Amino acid sequence: MAVTFNFELNNKPSKNKTYAILLRITQNQRHKRIKTPIAVSKKSDFNKDAKQGNWIRQREPNYAVWNETLAQELEKARKTYQELKEDGLATTEKIAIEMTAGERTSSFLQYAKQRTKEIYDAGNYRNWKKYNGFCNKLEAFLKERRSKDLTFAELTAAFLSKFEAYMHSLHNERDPDRKLHPNTIQVNFNIFKTLVKRAIEVEKFMKPEKNPFLSYSYKGVKTTKEKLDEAEIEKIIDLELKKGTLLWHCRNYFLFSFYCAGIRVGDLIQLRWCNITSDGRLHYQMGKNHKDRDLILVQQAKDILAHYYQNEIKATDYIFPLLDVNEHYAKAISQEEKDTLPTELKIKLFNQVSSKNALINKYLKKLAEMAEIEKKLSFHISRHSFAKIAKQKGTDNAKLKDLLAHSSVKITEGYMGSFDTSENDKALQNIFQKKEISPKDEIMKLLDNMNSEEIGELIRQIKK
Length: 464
Fold this sequence. Notes:
Layout: E1 4-9, E2 19-27, E3 30-40, H1 63-86, H2 92-101, H3 108-121, H4 125-144, H5 157-168, H6 182-201, H7 230-238, H8 246-259, H9 265-269, E4 281-285, E5 292-296, H10 299-306, H11 335-339, H12 343-370, H13 381-392, H14 397-404, H15 409-416, H16 422-432, H17 439-448, H18 452-463
Antiparallel strand pairs: 1-2, 2-3, 4-5
Helix pairs in contact: 1-2, 3-4, 4-6, 8-10, 8-12, 8-13, 14-15
């Protein structure tokens, strides 16, 4: 349906007693109005019935300049309409948004970088690192193709396929001898897909049917979730470690997580004494999804806490000696307060937590060697190990869902997929298990192979 553009006067005066001239956009008898830079001091200075270029009457000293400005506004609106029309996106609302937002971008790369900056400005540093990494890879790929930009029109399934091949050629930054892991590539494509979806649904930069992910998909690979069994947990517990050493502390961190249903490392590092209740419970809000967790402290967890408790501690002190309570970010205690920290403090806190996580994992590897555990031990394995052992002890998935703080049983079932092999084990054993034959069955089998004379003779022998 055609769109029309007309100027009209805002009959309500502004604070300085002038009347703004509005550009009215009409489609299907629906109107959208945009304020122009021009405002007249007298209503009569505006001619609503004027033809092109004569909206401001000549008695207004600035009539020539103002008419030229209005003509430019009208031309800008028509140009915006034509661009949106080509993409099938020409609505009064979208035209108004484009007019007030500035020049419409056709560059996906520019849009991706802008969105990445918005994530950074919002203080979501973890996501920013992922998005920034994606933008760097995309820009490097374009540079290799001797292209400086990527437009929305160039987003096709064929382009995505070439980008996939490029990422498979990249080396892992942490381990240059290895290529990018398929799941790292999947993370980048998830970001790509999210950006395209937002560009379609929020920004209206593309038609929905132009989405290249409608005909293209990429899946990573299933990875084995490493976990410890009870015997291996006991090996770690039984290690003789000098109190106060990093090895001793890191064992405490790992076991405390295990005893508290797999608390994540970022949450453990930031635990404070105010998270411990007087009736022996651990209550905190998870940083990953902002869900509340309320767990009873089993005796083993209490024993670990006893090593860190001192009479002069404050409720706001960190439980474990990992973060400095005197840092500015430490003033934010609740998750809500952390969410409203300035970006630079969020980044500093994030980097500190990441650094301590790396340190803990370094010493957990040493603990594994000392305990002769031939598994790559990391902090997150405490969560996997808890889930596995809980399942082996008969905990159903519904209860495990609550203990692990999953949002649905389906997630828990997927999480437990590689842990719970009991049913498969039973089935396999039944297939190859040798059947034990009872004495009665053995006698019946012998009788089946005897003729009547032999059976008669056997009976006579038994009667003797």
